[in-house]
Design goal:
It is built from 17 helices and 15 strands. The strands form 4 sheets. Strands 7, 8, 9, 12, 13 and 14 form a 6-stranded mixed β-sheet that branches. It has a 5-stranded mixed β-sheet with strand order 2-1-3-15-6. By secondary structure, the protein is an alpha+beta fold.
């Protein structure tokens, strides 16, 4: 089960920012990321950057997601952080509002940044995050299992009913081992995979705002989406039971024991390491007869205020997110660069016969999760109480109706205290 990481911590409230120094004749910067799936690509990017800028040495730091935010908070509180690091939108508002991030100066690279990805990182007219490529929520299918069970491999539009029908046929026992139709345990409706289904259901956002005040909006599309995905586990029984964690589901797909897997476009590097896995992208399904509106994550590179090598870090961030060379390297690895459409040929070339054109096709109508309420100062706490309550329903410890009612009550109490920051 995916969990939401919180950044609201007393450690960060006392963080002291150290003044940055200019770039020296030869400098070393530290780069922090949580994304293990693009480790090989990051190392290739760093090697190319250092050829272009031989006076700047980049030290790569891969920190597992489960500890990334705790480590970052502790480092920031101690006045020493990575010089450039990955940031997500759940945590950005708090770090920025506490003065823990430096404004960026992207220079000519500004024109090459996708406006939709950069917009959430602009506060008070200044840019604090340089967007990485859109991390799109996608549907993967195991083509070998589809053929074995006589299920048509989806290459064009399909509906949620088609997904359920396929999952039924793909759930069976093979050589004494269970094979599941889909990873429904990861589709909790408040998280990015489930929210992709919610927006496609017609959802407009789980929080409403008017005149600077906010209320929860766990509306009919939210309830319907949650019901449909929970039914995959408890009614249809085409998904692993709740005792199977998200990571275990991931391993089941890798092992050929799952037919449909909802994940991010970033998983390509992992699937490529399993030559026996006959995988492909599938179009994101329609939930109600209208075009889908899946989520993509708008991660960015930021420079902490505590960095002592801001000038060199800025050079690195600008090159990583706007240079044609960097975008070509990312696309050639089968990942989505910031200018995904511009580098379509390289991206599709890296993913021949994987139906990757469906990923590019979904991007124009994709949604940045909770984009309209990113300026709420206590958004992480609000989302966390929703996550905690829905976890109880997903693990079978309460009914969905009770979980939603409890979440609405807790969210409403927090939202009464919410303030608008920096906009």
């Amino acid at each position: 089960m995916l969990t939401r990481s919180l950044t609201i911590t007393a450690l960060l409230l006392g963080a002291a920012a150290l003044p940055g120094s200019g770039a020296l004749a030869a400098t070393t910067i530290t780069y922090g990321t949580w994304d293990e799936t693009r480790q090989a690509t990051d190392k290739q990017l760093i090697a190319a950057f250092q050829k272009a800028y031989p006076d700047i040495t980049v030290k790569y730091n891969l920190v597992p997601w489960d500890v990334y935010w705790q480590k970052l908070a502790a480092m920031t509180a101690g006045g020493r952080t990575f010089d450039a690091l990955w940031m997500n939108l759940d945590n950005f508002p708090f770090y920025q509002s506490q003065g823990a991030l430096s404004p960026l100066n992207m220079g000519e690279g500004t024109a090459r940044m996708p406006a939709k990805l950069a917009a959430p990182y602009r506060v008070g007219g200044q840019l604090y995050g340089a967007p990485l490529g859109p991390q799109a929520v996608t549907f993967y299918v195991n083509r070998a299992l589809f053929r074995e069970r006589g299920v048509p491999i989806p290459t064009s539009a399909w509906s949620w009913n088609d997904v359920v029908a396929a999952a039924r046929k793909l759930t069976f026992t093979k050589s004494g081992r269970p094979v599941y139709g889909i990873n429904a345990g990861d589709l909790q409706t408040d998280l990015e995979y489930g929210m992709s289904l919610y927006y496609s259901q017609g959802g407009t956002g789980i929080i409403k705002g008017a005149g600077g005040s906010f209320t929860p909006n766990l509306d009919a599309p939210f309830t319907k989406t949650a019901t449909q995905t929970l039914d995959l586990i408890y009614r249809e029984k085409v998904a692993p039971p709740p005792t199977v964690t998200g990571r275990q589901g991931y391993q089941l797909f890798l092992a050929g024991q799952m037919g449909i897997y909802v994940e991010g476009s970033w998983s390509v590097g992992t699937w490529k390491q399993e030559p026996a896995l006959d995988w492909a992208f599938a179009p994101f399904p329609s939930m109600n007869g209208t075009p889908s509106r899946p989520v993509y994550s708008a991660h960015a590179l930021v420079i902490p205020a505590a960095s002592t090598q801001k000038q060199s870090a800025q050079t690195f961030v600008t090159w990583m997110t706007t240079s044609p060379q960097a975008q070509e390297i990312v696309a050639a690895a089968g990942l989505l660069p910031p200018q995904a459409e511009v580098y379509r040929t390289a991206y599709l070339g890296a993913l021949k016969n994987r139906n990757a054109q469906t990923v590019l096709a979904q991007l124009p109508r994709s949604v940045i999760i909770n984009d309209d309420v990113r300026h709420i100062n206590n958004l992480p706490e609000v989302l966390n109480v929703l996550n905690q309550q829905l976890n109880l329903a997903w693990t079978g410890n309460t009914t969905l109706a009770k979980a939603i009612a409890a979440a609405e009550k807790s969210m409403a109490g927090l939202l009464k205290q919410s303030k608008v920051i920096g906009r």
